[in-house]
Structures are given as C-alpha cells and as structure tokens.
Design goal:
Helix content is 20%, strand content 32%. By secondary structure, the protein is an alpha+beta fold. The protein has one domain. The protein has a 7-stranded antiparallel sheet. A hairpin with a 6-residue loop joins β1 and β2. The N terminus is likely disordered.
C-alpha cells in the first residue's frame, strides 16, 4: 500500500482516497481524460460584511472558500471487452465517495435497535483531487450529475459524462495537523510562491496616492 503523500502522483488527473488517520492511499480513481475546462470560484471570508464597518473591512477571517466545477468524461466504446460491466465500476467508485459504507449503515441500525446512538460517526476517507502536481487539494463533493450517453446490449453504460462540483477543504475545516490540512497548506504555499514571481516596477502601474 502506498504511503501518503508521495503516492499522490497519478499519470492523469483524478481522485485519491486517503486514510485520514494513517495517511495511506486507499484507492485511486483516475480520470480517463483530463477535463477540457475548469471553473474556479473563490469567496473571501471577510469579517466586515456590512458597509461602514471600517474597523473590520480589511480583516480576513480565514482562507477563501474555493470551489471547482468540471466535467469528467469516460468512454468504454473503443475496447468494450475490457469493460464487461461497462462504466459501472468507475461510476460506482466516484459515487461511493459520498456514501457511508454498508457496514456503517448496518452498525447504525443495530445500535438504533438496541436503543443506542453513535455519538461520533466514523470518519470517512479523505478525498483528494489531483489536477497535476501543482493542484493536489483535499475536497468534498458538492455537486454530482451523471449523463449516461451510450449502452451495450446488457444496458451497461459505456459512455458517460460526470459533472462535478467540489469545495476545497482548508485548515478551518480539517485543522493544521490533519493530513488534509497539511495538503491544503502545501497547496496555498505553492500559490504564494507563484505570486512572488510576479514582479513589476511600481512605475508600470503608476504611483498610488495615499
């Protein structure tokens, strides 16, 4: 089994499921094709949200909330013999990142029958989105839609487009010592490093008057 985070380097983009306690890779779900387009939305977390809040307007509560939206396309039509169940395996792997396991559901039912409740449900695997070596980020899926476009004789989907929306999880969500928190700090650190390479004389912009 691969060790976190060195193994988070698939040939293509995709998702990696990581054990949140040990940091080991549990499963990789590579994209068959890298996305053609990617939409990113950032929402700053400011404190002064009302006009006239002069003491707080320049303060930041925490990292900006960042969301990605893109399509992942899968096609088994070229080599159907390699896909006896069509795209069910890869689609199921993607969908199950949003589900508790059957064992967890059965445990909850057994506890309920005994008149008990599980105070702290088991933590799910950490979902990591990998879009090249410079974008390795912990995420939670917020939108998921599947368009199945072609089927074999057994009605297995063999061509599909998955529309995905994910929210980047920050240290506000995970904490600084969590494996996902470490990944996020690395991701933001890379952004800060790139920003430092943008250097232009102030004369290019004009001297601001203060």
């Amino acid at each position: 089994m691969s060790t976190f985070p060195g193994a988070l380097n698939p040939v293509r983009g995709g998702f990696v499921l990581v054990d949140p306690d040990r940091g080991t890779v549990l499963r990789t779900i590579p994209f068959q094709y890298n996305p053609d387009t990617l939409t990113r939305t950032l929402t700053p977390q400011g404190i002064g949200s009302e006009p006239g809040d002069r003491l707080e307007v320049l303060r930041l509560k925490g990292p900006a909330q960042e969301q990605f939206r893109f399509d992942a396309e899968f096609d088994a039509t070229a080599e159907p013999e390699k896909y006896p169940d069509g795209l069910y395996p890869v689609l199921s792997a993607l969908e199950l990142t949003m589900y508790p396991t059957v064992r967890q559901l059965q445990r909850e039912d057994a506890l309920a029958r005994e008149g008990q409740i599980e105070v702290a449900p088991l933590e799910s695997a950490l979902l990591v989105l990998v879009l090249g070596p410079k974008r390795v980020v912990p995420v939670r899926i917020t939108e998921f839609s599947v368009t199945e476009e072609f089927f074999d004789q057994a009605l297995n989907p063999i061509r599909a487009k998955v529309g995905l929306g994910v929210r980047v999880l920050t240290v506000d969500d995970l904490g600084h010592r969590h494996h996902g928190g470490v990944l996020y700090l690395t991701y933001q650190g890379r952004k800060e490093g790139f920003a430092q390479t943008v250097r232009h004389p102030i004369s290019d912009l004009g001297t601001p008057r203060v």
